[in-house]
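Bench notes, afternoon.
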Amino acid sequence: MVVREKPGFDLGERQARVEEGVLGNLPIRPRDVLGVVDVFRTFDASFVEEDRLFEEYYRFFDERMRQHRIQPFFNAVESPGERDAFVKALGVTHILVNPTHYDELRRVLDGLPGQFVLRYTHKGWAIYEVKDSGPAGGGVKEDRGYP
């Protein structure tokens, strides 16, 4: 899971280790990956001012919760236009799909080849590139395991 950082906000050394371990062999920068971020507003002060820190995300979160009762993007109910607006507004270049959402999102994103290109898949994980976010070409990289 990687969240695009706001300037001046450091996700910390622990996040860097996660990025290196999960994405160390991939030809993309980990900071450009959007992963599933199960972020629901808390009732206590465990993560202070999250709606201000991730203001643009929460605009979509509030809208999707009103419309579909589900978080943005990582679902099977949004329209292609809603997905497009989300990735453009947040500047997303790549999407990391974890095993929890793999089957559902593979069907959805593979069905939108004009918007998303599968770049990597292995054991229930997938990475998609958002069209027009990077160089053309490439193809799917299948991980053969660690050396």
